[in-house]
Model the fold of this input.
Amino acid sequence: MQLVIASPSPYARKARVVLNEKGIAHEIIMDLPWAEGTVAPANNPLGKIPILLTDDGEAIHDSSVIVQYLELVHPEPPLLPTDPAGRLEHRKIEVLADGICDAIVLTALEGNREPELQSVDWVARQRAKIVAGLKRLAELLGDKTWFLDDRMGIADIAAACALGYIGVRAGDIEWRDEHPNLAAFSDRMEARPSFKISAPYSQPIPRFR
Ligand SMILES: N[C@@H](CCC(=O)N[C@@H](CS)C(=O)NCC(=O)O)C(=O)O
Done:
């Protein structure tokens, strides 16, 4: 199996963490989806990473589909419950975490446009989503160790990847003092080998008009 990723991507990190937590042998292909020479469009018409290239020739994209596929083909250790209600709760938190990342991506892209083209209203709208999303995550975690159940699952991995991404593209958002439970959770998750090996770092974003 091969996983096409970009170094800062929280979506790619989610898939990579799952591969590592499940002990699935894989090769990492580092890509730069914004640059010429990217392999993303050849494997995903949307030109986005992560993309999982399976040994039988499938190219699977969107991190949530990759994660669900990995759970099906490598059920151990389980990262999603088997009952529909339990799966739904994990997926809802995953989508919330990914939505925070989407808003961070849109903010970062907007901030990289020519200054005279940047929309203050658009950035404010995305920032509000980030702030509201973090508040909701903090409420959902409360004083628990894990978001759901008594073990780590997709909800925890997705939330931790989103929190880790803030420092890469939205470092001015001060969430740690506001949500100490999320800060402690993030620190615990970042200490895991699967998170250490996938620590995000920035890649250049092109300047769009
Ligand atoms: N919903 C997708 C989002 C993937 C995504 O937006 N990836 C970004 C990198 S963080 C990308 O490849 N962007 C390139 C582009 O939009 O052209 C997922 O979860 O996989």
